[in-house]
Amino acid sequence: MTSITFHPMTKKLAIESLCFAYEPPYDFYNVSVNEENVKERLDGSYVAAFVGEDLIGFYCTGPSARVPAGYPFGAYERRCTDIGVGLKPSWTGQGKGTPFFKAVLDEVEKDSESCLRLSVATFNRRAIRLYSRMGFRADQAFYSGPDKFITMIREATGKKE
Q: Strand pairing partners for 58?
């Protein structure tokens, strides 16, 4: 695979990434293109991922990467760097998630001395397997309505440059 590069999120890229349309059951992750969602993608916490000139995904850090329903369950009490990722649907299910996620981790770890944390819906076994292979372990479980989530934590690697 060609190398993955990261660039600041722009309005055009925010809209393009909000248009990612996943097939069931992953359509759970489909998001509407509206002013509020575009504004969130432009708040400085989102970064666009490219291979060549092609947008292949994004990641976000901080509160944008959290599921709000996890707060009452104490899911975010421990100080960690929260990460959220989105891979373009045409790139999913083909083994491309591993190099994408590894590149994201390398990028995020440049600026993080703390543990890393992800929040993932428990039906998403594909993502959970990937995160487990990358050293993340299940931590907290919580519900957002009928949907069960877990947080997964990877201890700090001490790689900050």
A: 48, 86
List, for the chain, all residue ranges whose pLDDT scores fall below the cut of 70.
1-2, 158-161
d(CA 143, CA 15): 29
Both tokens of residue 121? 């819906």
What is each CA distance from 117 to 32, 62, 89, 107, in whole angstroms? 25, 10, 23, 15
Three-state secondary-structure class, residue 127? helix
Q: What is the pTM of this model?
A: 0.91
Q: Which two tokens stand for residue 110?
A: 């440049």
What CA–CA distances, in Å, run from 73 to 78, 99, 111, 138?
Answer: 12, 32, 27, 15
State the DSSP code for 19.
T
Q: How far is it between the farthest Cα atoms of the chain? A: 42
Tell me how far apart the alpha carbons of residues 121 and 56 are, in angstroms, rounded to a whole number: 21
